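Justification of computing resources. Each target in the renewal requires a structure prediction run like the one illustrated here; the chain below, 379 residues long, is used simply to show the kind of job we budget for.
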Amino acid sequence: MVPYVLMFGLSCLNFRLAYLLRKYKTIKIMFVLIGLLLPCVLAGARDNTIGTDVLVYGDAYLNYAQRYNSLSSFMNFDYLGGEPLFKILSYVSAHYFGQFGYYFTLEFACVLPIYATFVRRGWERYSWLGMLIYYLCFYSFSLNLLRQSIAMSIIFWSYNYIVERKPVKFCISAAIAVGFHLTAAIMLLLYPIHRMVTYVPDKDSKNFFSKIIGPYRKLMYALIILLCVALLFLYSSLLPAFIALTGRFEGQLKYLSGGISIYWPYWLTMFLPIFLLFRKYNVRCSMDEEYSFLYLMFALSIILFQMIGINSESYRISLYFMQFLILLMVKIGCTEYRTSRVILERWCTLFSLGTYYIYFFVIALFNHVYPYTSSMLGI
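Resulting structure tokens:
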């Protein structure tokens, strides 16, 4: 656990120093680069026993990419399957930079969009907090879910285009994410959901949309949640028929399982963050409609995670929504007064997320990332 703790701490410290020394551009860039490269070095130098999917398909992509002499021949090799953009990135990084460069590049593609989002949103002051939440909740997934983690980070970045009302750029970003993992397609719903949730109706307007959104906003939130749940049920029902029709994605069948179940370890470790974050829900949402969207995304992640009994891939889908917890906490840190109570709540939430990390990834060995070993680093 020590390598992870050291990396998390040193990386976040570098992001904090980069902000404090932002007047000195060269020094700032140096600290930012160190902060970004530390998790990539840890990922690149790890043994192939760290992360379940490394042996499932990660090393296979690596070996075949090194074996083929051209990208076109590698892309035409159907044995591995996989999305096209991931295959391209895998070939370039593995063929020219070897094993270390391959896993280093995949991790860099995960962490760069996360940090860049804080900068673009003007939240650089709390980038250390956002990155710490990412490390606690998602870094271990990036060592395992190689393709989806990149897709998630691209969706995270695309949130900028949602807020800026740039639908074309958002769709392009979402399409790129789908090029790394097909599950990202469901996130195309984010733009219309955001428009509905953050829409501020004019009381004097005779617009039909204004009349519907105004008095029935909370009902609309419930319908959005039900829609996402229904889509998951629909996925479970239609996937076997789609596989029978096309003969593709047979491997996805193993993720379909039984009924609804409550995953108590998730609730026990996430109860405090959920309680503290929702405690001022009405106050925050009355101040800024963006809070409504971020709260809704976090609520969706909680619900979808509990549906792991219906479809074990539901937790994968929940991760797309759960990452908005990062934006929610950073936004709270940027906009609320730094009273002793707010600071205490922030540290209690981080403590709970640390408990979440220890239980799932250290005790329960989720994703098989603990203990960290690296023959390259002599660990």
